[in-house]
Design a protein that fits this description.
Length: about 400
Amino acid sequence: MEETGHRGRWNKKSSVGTILLLMYMFIPALALLQPSEEQICPHGDYPTEKGICCNKCSPGFKLVEKCHATGQRSICTPCPDGQFTDQMNFFPNCRRCTRCKTSKHEFEVSPCERNKNTICQCKEGYYKSHIDSETYECLKCTQCGPDEKEKQNCAPEKNTVCVCNENYYRVNSKCVPCKNCTAECDQHCSTPPGIIKVHNTGNELLIKIIGVVAAVALVLLVLVVLITYMATKWFTKKKLLKPTSQPSDVSPDSSEQVLIYSEEPFVNSNVKAIPQSPVSEQQPSNLPDCVPLEINSEFPDLIYTVLDLVPVLQVKQLVRTLGVKDTDIEQAEMDHRSCREAHYQMLRVWVERGSRAGGGGRGRMLHSPLLQELLDKLKDMHLGQAAEELETKYGIQ
């Protein structure tokens, strides 16, 4: 009887331990499903640096003045001729309309309007060869060779597709006639083609089965590693997090102004946000011939602009390419519960290190090489539109 009682208590303890283990494994996953604390504004609005929800401007409009208190609305104005915005935004400037280049074999399909850009198309005999998601060039359609035939005709968005004629096969981009027994020239084989096809079909089926098994094993392995990593990170955060919250020490002033010198002013630069306290403006009478080594701007304005333009899922990839260490990235995530505040801290580490490396010692002054490095990395990540918006805002040509 006593031994039976011990067994019963042991079975109950084992069941409780198993349940606790499963709970610890799935708590991080449940935390990921909780709604983000940042989603506090109504649909179509965005949070400002002071936590006020302001409305965005409609397509075809640009921002003139942000709202300054809850219940107020932002002031927007239509884009001038030759400029457009094609989405809800809170940008102080519209984008320049694209001009179709006849010298580059383009012609205009539809003109630019305030809420949409110009639509250009390659002329007949040319097709669009995309360099990235926003850049392309018109190349001449490929002509099939004498031993080739067209499988797909040339179209404005696709080049001609050529395949070899019957009894020919491709070698180094050329079609050569069949002479020996190969996989491409089975008509020259002594074995009946039917037997070869059955043999090949069996090999293909075996390869497919092996591929499916390998894919399932890989998925299981990834799940195990992911669950282990999330559980470890959860326990580490519980140990490292302090009981008192650390407020962010960065709160950019709404009255901060951005001033940058360039070879020519950016589009519609005379429109600016009206600050809460009056600030005198001084503009240099003579602009320098090149972009200065330092940009007279406190970096919070740049960082918040980057966070508004770069998709959330690509911010960590961006800061890694800018040289921010994984230890700094993890520290920012542990110090800030808000995803946006953590991303701000990552970019701040990059700016401060770049300022010190450039011999700055100028506090929060931004150096031009840092901005150029940021633009180059955005273009490498195929974020050309974000780079273009930064160039427009800071007058970089």
